[in-house]
Amino acid sequence: MSRRAVVIGAGLAGMLAAAVLSTAGVDEVIVLDRDELPEGPEHRRGLPQGRHAHLLMAGGLAAMEELVPGVDLRERLLAAGAHEVSLSSGLLARTPEGWLRRWRREGPVMLTCSRALLDWTVRDAVREHCPVEVRRAVAVGLTGSAGRVRGVRVAAADGETELDADFVVDASGRGTRVVTWLDGLGLSGVREYTVDSGLVNATRVYRVPQGAERFPLTLVQPDPYVSRPGRSAMILPIEGDRWMVSCGGTRGGEPPTDPEGFLRYTLELPDPIVGRLVSGAEPLTDVHLSRSTSNVRRYLEKSARWPDGFVVLGDALATFNPVYGQGMSVAAFGARVLGRELDRAGSLGAPGLARRVLRGAARSVDAAWSMAVGQDVLYPGVRGGRPGLADRVVTAYSRRMTKAATGSYAAASAIWDVTSMRTPPTRMLHPAAILAALAGPALPRLTEPPLTAGERKVLRGLDRTAV
C-alpha cells in the first residue's frame, strides 16, 4: 500500500521535514503553502521576519546537511554569496559587560546571508534531490479523530476539499492554527505561554563601501540589566556585496522607520560604531519594520492525549524572539528528531511515533526557550512573564561568564560553543567553564572596539558623523 505524507508550510522546518519523509520510504510527500513561492531568493509574505538579520549557527547547519542527502548546503550558500564568520575572530561584539576580544584561534563559525537566500537554497536543494511535490494551498483543518489524524482540509474555490494522508506535519510557522485544529478533533486544553518584550525590528540594506568588504560582523548587544528598554544594532554581511543593518528595541525603546531617525538610533547606542559605519554607506532600501517577535511556547507534548499520524515542528511548536538567532537551528533539530524516530519505528503507522517525535522536538526547544525567555523577562514592560529565582540565578551566572569572556579565552569559548548551538547550555557548567567564570577576565577591559589598523582606517573613512 502506498503511503502519503503532507507537510503544511514550505519554510525551513517544512522543507526539512519533507526531505526526511521522502528519504524514509514514504511514497508521496506533498508540501502545502499559502504563498506563491518565488523562483529565486526573494522575500515572501509568509516570513514576517524575512527582511531582518538571520544567523545560521554551526549546529543548525550541521543538522540541515544531515537531513538533505547528497547536498553540501554550506558550499551552495557560500557559492551564492553567503559569508562564513568566525565567532572567535570575525565578530565585533559589544556585550553589556564590554567588548569581547578577538582571538587568533579557530572557533565555531556561522553563516550570514539574507533569509530569502537561505530559504530558497534549502527549498531548491530538497526539490532537486528528494521526490517532493510543493502545492500552493491553504490548510484550514485536520481530518480524522482524537486517536489518529487522517489528512488535511484544504480551502477551495467552492468550499473545502480533503487531502488524505498517512502522516501530517504542521510546520506552518508563527501563524499556526494548530490549537484550533486540535479542538476540532476533540483535543482541548493545550497550554500556551507567551512572553513578549515588545521588540520591534527595523532593517535597512546598504551597499558595502569600497574597501570595507572584509570588515567584521559588528554587533552592539542590548542590555537587559539596567531597567531600561533593550536597544541593539547589527551590521551583517550578506550576498550581493551588501550590508544588512538591523536595529532592535524592546517596549519603550523601539527604533524609528525614517532614515534620519534610524541613523540617529544607531548613534545613540552605548557605542556608536554601527552608526559611524553606515553614515558613509549608500542605502539600497527603505527601513523595514516588524513586530512579530514574541516568544510563544505551545506545550503540545504535555497533552493528555495525542493523535497518531500528526507532528508539529518549527515555529508552530515554539517561536523565539529572533534577536537570539535560534529559530532556524531549532527547526532543523526538530526535523532531525523526526528522521531518527522514523528510523527506529520503521513505519509511518507505528503506534506512538508522533508522540515520540513531538517529545523529542520539545526537548530541542527547551534550551533555546530558557535562553530567550530568561533574558526577555528582564526588560521593562515585558508581558507574560516575570523573572523568578531560577531566572535570577542563571542571569547572575551568565553575567559573570560574559564579563569573564571579555578577557578570558576559556570563558569566551564556552559561550561560543553554546551560541553556535553545537553544545547544550550545560557546557557552561563544565569545570573549566566554571573556573573561568570564577577567575574573571585575565586581560584588562577594552575601552574601544578591538579593530585592526586597517579596520580603524575603514571606520575613519566612512564616519560622516565626525565631519
Automatic annotation (TrEMBL):
GO terms for molecular function: monooxygenase activity. InterPro entries: FAD-bd, FAD/NAD-bd_sf. Pfam families: FAD_binding_3. Residues 5-342 form the FAD-binding domain. SUPFAM superfamilies: FAD/NAD(P)-binding domain. Keywords: Monooxygenase, Oxidoreductase, Signal. This is FAD-dependent monooxygenase. It comes from Streptomyces lancefieldiae.
